[in-house]
């Protein structure tokens, strides 16, 4: 599959990946004019060649294939960004399993602004194993790329992210505000991608029906998981099975983000999540008050509508039942890890200076973009056991309605498995209770949300490709500010 992708600065506030691709019928919602790039559809085994031209007048850029296991030169490492007028060829074989993936800019220090302005799109992989399962297809299989944005009075994108992130006041699905979808009375697969810079959603249905997850970052789960709500952090994907067959024609319902206890900004930082109200008084409570006025701000923990659905009178010709077995997932074992039961610890820390920017193990991303510490060198064809810890030692915010910031940690290369998630005894269990049932830790993942007080252990294999790889926070402002490190596989 040859896909030429051009990057264009359309006006001062918006960029776009433009390319010729073969479009499927399910792209109706995604192909309405928007700033997003085309939905790319690959099949496992495809040899892909993408000719990328940087047409931006004055910025370096590149493309990263989020969740795809590709050679170093095709991974979109910041060292491989190109300048205006240059061409970069991404060449790789699709070796990932079928699933919902994502592509976006990974420009050095400019990922947040470039993704915000539009340099992102959905990427869907199919394969034989998935095709053997009776799942919704064609117009019943819909990608939903969810992002928050703010607009000026003249409808230009406005960006005001800081060290803590960016929180816009409008929710867009596939680049559309006030997104609506008419459905038939049948079963759907909604492939939700959180393409937001920083906003963490707590997905739920307005009619309180449970959510049924059939897939996560790296494709189908072994079996469906049913939850009252699901947390979806930037970079994560969740595939939902939604059955409208029993609903009356004319039924309206909403996919929403439900209110939760929220995450506090870093101490001392002015944060736009709180509408500039600082950290006391009204800014702290959890009110359901999304604002749609330009310039108004919306807290990420506030309830907000994502997608409005209307059930039509037609019944799907092909009625499906939710399979109780979706795929085969071979569990990685700690005994297979190179480092056995002594994990490589990734501590989420904060810079000791006034910025208090979040970092890994107190170290920012190297200035030369390529250095690695001795403990960041990994043997090729090994499995590694990691433990990510997030303990800022308490921020003195007991009894307040917010937790310290949470970080979606993403690793490039092959997907990993989460082996354990634990929350410390002395943590804020009351606030944690508003989100803790929303984690789906099964299946293959490439991004995991780590909340303050948690320790998340994971196992990951490093095979097929040697060279430089990355892990970083997928809060894109955190990433740009140094919450990213290299790994060298050799
Ligand atoms: Cu989606 Cu390195 O990121
Ligand atoms: Cu990635
Ligand atoms: Cu972060």
UniProtKB/TrEMBL annotation:
SUPFAM superfamilies: Cupredoxins
InterPro entries membership: Cu-oxidase-like_N, Cu-oxidase_C, Cu-oxidase_fam, Cu_oxidase_Cu_BS, Cupredoxin
Keywords: Metal-binding, Oxidoreductase
Domain Plastocyanin-like: 34-128, 396-489
Gene3D superfamilies documented for this protein: Cupredoxins - blue copper proteins
MF-aspect GO terms: copper ion binding; oxidoreductase activity
PANTHER family membership: BILIRUBIN OXIDASE (PTHR48267:SF1), CUPREDOXIN SUPERFAMILY PROTEIN (PTHR48267)
Protein name: Multicopper oxidase domain-containing protein
Phylogenetic classification of the source organism: Bacteria, Pseudomonadati, Pseudomonadota, Gammaproteobacteria, Methylococcales
